[in-house]
Amino acid sequence: MPAHPDTHARRIEGRGTPDDVWLSWPGLNDIPAIGAHTLVPPGSRAVIVAPHPDDEILACGGLLQLLAAQGSELLFVAVTDGDASHPGSPLWPQERLRRVRPQESAQALQVLGLASPAWLRLHLPDGSGEAMTPQLSTTLATQLRPGDTVFTTWRLDGHPDHEACGWSCAAACSASGATLVEIPVWGWHWAAPGDARAPWHRAHRLPLPDPILQRKRAALRCFASQMDADPSTGRPAIVAGDALQRLLHACEVYFL
Description:
Elements: H1 19-23, H2 26-30, H3 36-39, E1 45-50, H4 55-69, E2 73-80, H5 94-111, E3 118-124, H6 133-143, E4 149-153, H7 160-176, E5 179-183, H8 187-190, E6 203-207, H9 210-220, H10 224-227, H11 241-245, E7 251-255
Parallel strand pairs: 1-2, 1-4, 2-3, 4-5
Antiparallel strand pairs: 6-7
EC number: 3.5.1.-
Keywords: Hydrolase
Organism: Janthinobacterium lividum
């Protein structure tokens, strides 16, 4: 995976860029709009590669509903089981997270109207970052078809696992003839409006009608492990406040 000189600046620390700062940025509405039928043309398959259980909803929970409505074939790839999210927690030991987090994903997809989608669960080590790239790239290349559209987290998203998925998918798409679409998740945290490190020239905005947005919001409530504070350690929720609201805008942004 290529190194990037700004790695030290893409840290997920503190509150991050407040959501109201993003909402007040005129450039957000200037991003050209795109439809689900353009992102995934009729007859094409969408492959959603999620670093952790919940990333598929946080990143593209609105798009998933639109793709289901238009009858697109979907394949979900769960890269890790997300069992390293609560280090040292008596309430959320790794064994429990390994069991519960995939269940939360399944419940969230049911809320979105996807009752029994196709899953490929890879069980790669959570938090392994760049080390997972060779195996993930090879595995994905065997699964992808020419004409697939692959959705995953952005190569410069700031989280090592997110970035590894972006680079792995880029390599697998190049090898297979699939199309790569990247989605910022934690990028909204460390970046700022107009940030030159983000590829705004590749950005497209998928508008979400209010019923779609509200179902995405409801689906995210299924992730108690991530949305609730941990009283056993005193740590706050992993995804809450601005971190959650930044991903509940009336549009989703995709880097094509």
